[in-house]
Predict the 3D structure of the following.
Amino acid sequence: MKKLLYFLSICIFFTALSSCIEEFDAATTEFEDVIVIEATLTNELKNHTVKLTRTYKFEDFGPRSESGASVKITTNNNITYSFRETGSGVYTSNEMFKAEADVIYNLHISTRNGQEYKSKDTQLTNISKIDDVYALRTKSKDGVEGIGLYVDSFDATNRSKYYGYEYEETYKIVVPYWFPEDLILSPSGNISLGPKQQEEETCYNTIPSKGRLLMNTNLLAEDRVNRFLLKFITEDDIRINTRYSILVKQYIQSRESYNYFRVLEEFSESQSLFSQVQPGFLASNIFSVNNADEKVLGFFEISSVSEKRFFFNREDLLDSDFPWACTVSEPPTQRLRALLRNDRVTLIGVLDPDGPIPYQVVDRVCGDCTASGSNIRPNFWED
């Protein structure tokens, strides 16, 4: 959605930019205030959300939320799902529900200033499950060693065609240095030893993907996704420190939603703000009831979703241990105070607490896993 908001801001910027090479003021002189609607309904039983914002000027810090609106989804069998505002511009359905096959859905929005918006008739796409998610040792285009994460899928009915993939990475971090005690720096500058108050040897971190990876099978002999690369991870990335998991979501999209996200993706990958390419306005399936000429950004998408989780250990695919870049140091007391005050090191050994070089330490990331993740083990994790 940030790409979507940024899209219109850049379009406005291109309009104002002259071809002369001279100093200019980047402030927006012409601005079109447009509502932005983010709404994805799936066949997952859950409380669905709709996000409403407005475009923002080039010099602004971010989008403005559209609060105080009335949001609902209706069906052709006379069912209405009402939404309530649970955050600034974020609307959540009052009840859990899921999109059903052969049902027509419409999104309805009424803003607090009396503007009304409605989507075109939209239906759930074909349901198709992921066949496999797996990892292979490979090289990047630049010849860098690493791990490729792939997905396979097949629809024997030949009705899926348009695929989108999102994923969530979770990885285990085990630090190479660990000591049962911590260094404690008092307000007066005294350094003492104390037992650790939390788990700092093993942690976990979770990162969602940014955007959606798109793929279509229109030009293929069959409706098959084969070895589609989701992500490449270099062998020295902390994500494959010990054990890694990826949860992949496969969206079967309509042709219209696929094209919408493809155009958005192509624009976001533009190499330069000063490119001569000036894309037109993104076509939405949502329109203004009050004014047929009003522009609306966003898309009401209804996609079937399937998901699959995959785990692997580093030693399953790579020959070497994770290459930690850790240096053991023995700083004098005065220097150690400064390092502790800035939370830069962690204790790994006691030399002489009363001497000029009392302790051995390493950078915090090498001895305290909470510098890189959370020490709370996820419920889904399998060792």
